[in-house]
Structures are given as structure tokens and as C-alpha cells.
Amino acid sequence: MAVRNIAVTDTLETFRTEFNALCLNDFGDIADLSGSISATTLVGAMNETISIATSTAGFTIRDSSSTTQLIGGGDTLSILGTTNEIEAVVSATDTVTIGLPNAVSITTSVTAPTLSTGNMSLANGSITDSSGAISFGNENLTTTGTLNAGAITGTSITGSGATHTLGTIEISGNTIRSTDSTTMIINDNLTVNNSLAAGVTTINPTGANNIESSSGFTIFGSSIVLNTAKTLIFEGATADSFETTLTVTDPTAARTITLPNETGTVVTTGSTDVVAESMMANDSVGSNELKSVVSLIIYNSSGTPLKTIFGAGA
Amino acid sequence: MAVRTPLKNDSGNLKQMTSTEVNEIVDQVIYQYSINPGVVLEVVSSGGSLGTVSDTRLQAGASSTSVSGTPSEGTTAEPSIVTTNFDKINETGTAVSTVTDTGTLFPVFLDSSNNIQAMSMQDMLDTFIHPAIDLLVSGSTSTQQGGTYQISNSTSVSGSTLVSSTPVFIDTRADTSLYTSGSIPETQDQPKNITSFYLHKITGSDTSYTLPIYIAGDNHLQVYPESSFETMIQNLVRDVAKNSTSGYSINYTLGGPGNSRGSGLVDTRLDGSGNYQTRFVNANDYRAQEFPNGSAQTISTTFLRIAKA
Fold first, then answer.
1. Sorting pLDDT into bands at 50, 70 and 90, what band is A74?
2. Which pLDDT score is estimated for A157?
3. What is the rounded distance in angstroms from the CA atom of residue A232 to the CA atom of residue A286?
4. How many folded domains does chain A comprise?
5. Which chain A residues have a beta carbon less than 8 Å from that of B104?
6. What integer is the mean pLDDT of B2-24?
7. Of A55, A71, A90, which one is at a domain's C-terminal end?
8. Residues of chain B neighbouring A295 (CB-CB closer than 8 A)
9. A16 located within any domain
């Protein structure tokens, strides 16, 4: 509603339309006047209203800070909520309902022994508890955002979709990988109940083997050390109760046994009639290796020994 | 004196030779000697080093003549003896190689400690050479005397080779059939050859034998190479036969000590005192002469002898 002004130069028609608008829109239709008002003019109504207000005893309202306000007769008590904090609803008859809006904003904190809610939205993204623990009961916890946690403990952690990432650890289907490294590090013991396959090598594959390689052989890139009292056992061609064990007498110094660069069969003290002439190095057999050694001396005609030949005696 | 038993290769093993095998080597020593003797005899026209053997025969005595009558037997000269000396066998100065023991030159044997030792020079002499010399100088004329000599009154002797067709001795006697009274004065010496004697060299025999073991280079034991072994034993037996100072050189003589070789050089002669014959030519020419007569008697027999010296 604006101030209506008729300029000197305005026409009578302007005056008529402004006047009609003033009556209709600014002063209002008399028919719309409250029924409790008996006056039929605007001034009369005003006067009647003032009279009613001033003739009725009022009351005082006070807030927690002891601030008071006199509400007299004819006064209107406005009960106003704060957006997203509280809301007030006036309804018949003479009822004011004060409640919380569907969306509540609390500047500092809410203290409640039990909080039941549908969806809960946090403005500053923090839920804490003085006990140091927040329990979600047996409810599922779902987020499409990121879950940052110092520790996650649970009997089952599941997700939906093909790929899940914990930090730089990506779980996709049954594949786990690092998103920022080609190396996955497990900093503690690792127990695999079934097979563990790495490249061509499988640890604990199905069957009797503890380790096997699809290439048909396992290559060790470093030395193999059998710890104390451990041996190398060969099953042989037949899986039975007979095996061949390769072991050593307890070394008292660093020893090296070299297998020669050749194809052949290792000779042991249990071997019989296997040492061939070709296996003997030249000038390698002395008289001490001969059984019941006897000697044959070749003399010249003066009796000076020329050569002594050793042989096994009868 | 140390006779050794050499070792041999017995199918790759060392084994002592049997006495038979040792003797076979001795036979080979003889054969090697036979093809190149250390003591060689030759037939020369005269002046042979073995000396002289004389052949004697009777010749008619000188004839007697007279103008008055036939000379008596007593005044007629008796037959006399003609002597021909034969010195046709000569020992040549054959050069021989001296064998020196190098310590490993000779075959090996098993000593008392069952070690192997090379035979010494004395072992070689005692085992092979001296037994060979003993056989060579024996009185037989078989192949085991190969390379030595014998005398025969034939130019052909089985198992021997004629050294020369020139007789080394001729036994002659007076040919009484040539003397006739009608021819007085007969030539006094009208001989005839009774027997000619020739020098032969006995042929050896290359019999099989087993080569012994010896110490080769690098002191290895090795079967003695045949040619080397035979050269060695040939040089050794020749050297010993010619130069031994221990009584094993071979010495030939005519009529000296030792074993006779072949036929003796027999000198025969008629034993008659003279066959007195006369001839009347004319009244002023009466002749007489005594021709050889009698039976042939052996005057001497001289053998070619071989002995160790």
C-alpha cells in the first residue's frame, strides 16, 4: 500500500480511480470488518477497538533473562519461532502449539538421553561421545561418501559396487591392490587358509604339495638355508613310506660341497662298484687308498730304485 | 754267478720265464752269433793264423846209373819223404761293438724281495751269453753251434756252409802206379791227392723265443722290441766271443785244446822201404831206382778244435 497523492494537475478521473482504490484497497470493505466490531466506520471501529483494549486487564510475559512485556487488553501476543529452531502455530480455539520444525538448527548442542530421528544431518561433520564410543546397535551403516576412521572393527564389513577403496587400498571384486604403489605391504603375520598364488608359484595348492609352480619348477633368487635339524627329503617316484633324506653332519666350520658341472650320479659310501676309471683324476690315488698295499720297486741293474709301484695286496 | 729268470709278458701280466724259455733265448743268442760271428775264420793261400798242418808222402829215391853193371839195391837211394805245409786257416780281425750296461739295457728279473730289477752285465753273461758260448764251443755240429766252424772232406755238408772251395788241407801219397822201371829215371815225386779237407761254417737256426721285459724310457716296463733285443744280444755275444777275459772267448786251433770240429786232417803215407827197380838200357847204361811202396799209414791226424779261452 502506497501513499496516494492527487496532483493539482490530475484529472478528475484520476482522482476517481485513486479514490476508489483508496476505499477498496487501503481502507477496506466495511463488510469485511470483524463482527465483534459494531462500528460501521473506520474511525468508529478504531475507537471501539481502543476502547475494548483499554478496558480489559492485561498480563505480563517474561523470558529467562527476566525481561518482561505487558500484554494489555487488545494487545496481540506474537509467539514467533526461530527458523529451524522452534515454530509456533496458532489454532482454534485460542491454542498456540509450540514445536520443533522438521528441520531443526541448534547452534551449540543438543543434549538428550535418546535421540530418535529419521535422517540426521550434521553441519560440522562431527559426532562424539564422552564415553569414547558410539554404538549404532545392530543397524547397518551406509555412506556414499568417504569413511575416515582411526580404526574400523566389525564382524562384517560389506559394500556395494565393484570397487572399494580403503585409503590407497582398492578392493575390486576379489582383487586388492594399492592405488599409489605397485607393492602391497602386510605389516603383520599373514595366514591364508587355502592356496596363495604368486606369479607361477602357488603356496599350499590343492593336493599334497606345500608349494608348486605352474612352470614345473621353482626358482629361488637367493640362497636356501635349511634351519637347524632340517633336511632335504626326496619322495622319489613312488609316494610311499620310503624317502631319501639329504642331510649333513653338523658342521664345525664353514663348509662348501660343490657338485661338479657334469651329468652323473653322486657316489656315496654305500655305493658299490660304481667308481669308474674316468672318474679318477690323474695322479689322484696314493698308496694309502689301496687295500693291503704292496709295493713293487723297479731297480736298475745297479740296484738303484727307478720307480716304486703301489698296488692292492692279496 | 747269478743266473736270473727274466720276466715276460704273460697275457698282460708279468711272469717269470720257464727254463725252457730261457734256453730258447740262449738259442737265439747262438743264432745271432751265427749270422754275425765274433770270431771269423777264412781260408787264405798261406800264412793262416791257426798254424800249419803238414802233409807228408814218399817220393822215389834218386836213380842210380852205372856203365858196368846194374847198381845194387844197397847203393841205390832210398825213397824219401816229401812234406807239404798247409797254413790256410786264418782268424780275421773282425770288429765287434762293445756293450755297456746303462742300468736299464738288459731284461728285468724278480729279485729276492719280489721287486723288479734290471739284469746286470754279469747277470746277462751268466744267464744267456756264457751258456751260449758253452754250446757254441761244444763238440757237436748242430745249429746250436751256428757260426762256428768245422772241417769236412766234402765240399757239401748239410747244415753248414762252405767257407771256401780251396782245401785247407790235402792228404797226398805217392802214386805208385806212375812209377815204372822202364822209365827210370822216374820223376821222384809223383803224388796223388788222397783226401781234401774244407772249412765249413755251421749254419744257425732262428728258433722262436719269448721276448723278455725290460725297462724302457720313463722307466716303464715294456716288452723288449725284437730288433733291439737281437741287436743287443748279438753285440754282446760277439764281444764276449772275441774279447772275453773271463774264459769265454772262442778260440780255434789246429790240434790245440778243446773240442774237435768235424773231420781230422789226416796225413797218410806209404810205409814201404822202397821198391828197387832196375833198367838195362845198353851195355854201357845200367840204371836202378827205388820207387815208393808200401801200405798207406796214418802219420798224423790234426783236428780243428774250438775252445773257450
1. low
2. 60
3. 34
4. 2
5. 300-301, 306
6. 96
7. A55
8. 115
9. yes
